[in-house]
Amino acid sequence: xxxADKKVVKMHYSVMDQNQNAxxxxxxxxxxxxxxxxxxxxPGLEKxxxxxxxxxxxxxxxxxxxxxxxxHEGLMQAVSKDMFEGIEVEVGMQFRATTDQGEQSVTVxxxxxxxxxxxxxxxxxxxxxxxxxxxxxxxxxxxxxxxHGHVHSAGGCGxxxxxxxxxxxxxxxDCCSTGSCKS
Length: 183
Prior knowledge:
There is one protein chain. The protein is mainly beta. It has helices at residues 43-49, 143-148, 174-177, and strands at 7-17, 22-25, 32-35, 57-62, 76-80, 94-99, 102-112, 115-119, 129-140. Strands 1, 2, 3, 4 and 9 form a five-stranded antiparallel beta sheet that branches. Strands 5-8-7-6 form a four-stranded antiparallel beta sheet, with no helix packed on it. A hairpin with a 4-residue loop joins strand 1 and strand 2. The longest helix has 7 residues, at 43-49.
């Protein structure tokens, strides 16, 4: 079966930046599972997966524009330390901020006296990435998976509930409210 829209893909991957620095890998951990077309993957990687089949191993270079986007200087700003209400703020800390565009992750990049400089760019924005991928499984997504927008696997629902994960659940997400997911 070839990878296409609405197919579930289980894969291993590793990713490096343009200087060959390792960023992440699933090869020593659990493979990644997702529904193609659900918005879970960056566009360049998802496009490279199309038409691949079980057993395929490949390398793909994804330019920043097809990955996490270009950097936007307008997403960096200085805010008062008072905005953090008694938190001992340090460079590298990440927070969720409410903006005109909704909730957004920001990273503290500098502390200047009573001001904290935050960056709303994704940490990998502006970086060209190279992925090594191994396709382990391809199957049709179930109607329930398509409705929920994520994979339901035997040991749970196949997704992560951590704050750093890009997938967010609504309160009406049955698989999560019934306890069939592992948090």
